[in-house]
UniProtKB/TrEMBL annotation:
This is UPF0145 protein POF43_009265. Transmembrane segments: none annotated. Pfam families: YbjQ_1 (PF01906). It comes from Streptantibioticus silvisoli. HAMAP family: UPF0145. SUPFAM superfamilies: YbjQ-like. Belongs to the UPF0145 family.
Length: 122
């Protein structure tokens, strides 16, 4: 597995900036659009569940589940950006992830934040 299998986030060329902070240095919030979110639910495939069960007996990282969770978080974030863009935002402030088990069959991941229009301070 490569380093990209364990991380995510935006590319430097994204037209919608996503940050976990309340503001962006050098910019001011011109307009608050409101809450946006991206949601996805992923089930685990049988092979990763069996492997995770065996691995949990001896300890160590569950790499198959890690990779699945990274892919799920990235998909939720992509959906968050799509929603922000569709509503006219160029940034999402205070982005967070919420992760829960969904009816014991998968993992629900929600990326959420506040969609805004930022302008550079002059």
């Amino acid at each position: 597995m490569s380093i990209s299998d364990y991380g995510g986030g935006q590319t430097e060329h994204s037209d919608v900036l996503v940050v976990t902070t309340n503001d962006v240095p050098g910019h001011r919030v011109e307009r608050v659009i409101g809450e946006v979110f991206g949601l996805t639910v992923r089930s685990r495939h049988l092979g990763s569940q069996i492997g995770a069960g065996l691995k949990s007996m001896v300890g160590g990282e569950l790499k198959g589940l890690t990779k699945t969770l990274v892919q799920t978080r990235n998909q939720a974030m992509e959906r968050l950006v799509e929603q922000a863009r569709a509503r006219g935002a160029n940034a999402v402030l205070m982005m967070r992830f919420d992760v829960t088990e969904a009816a014991d069959i998968g993992t629900e991941v929600c990326a959420y934040g506040t969609a805004v229009v930022l302008t550079p301070q002059g």
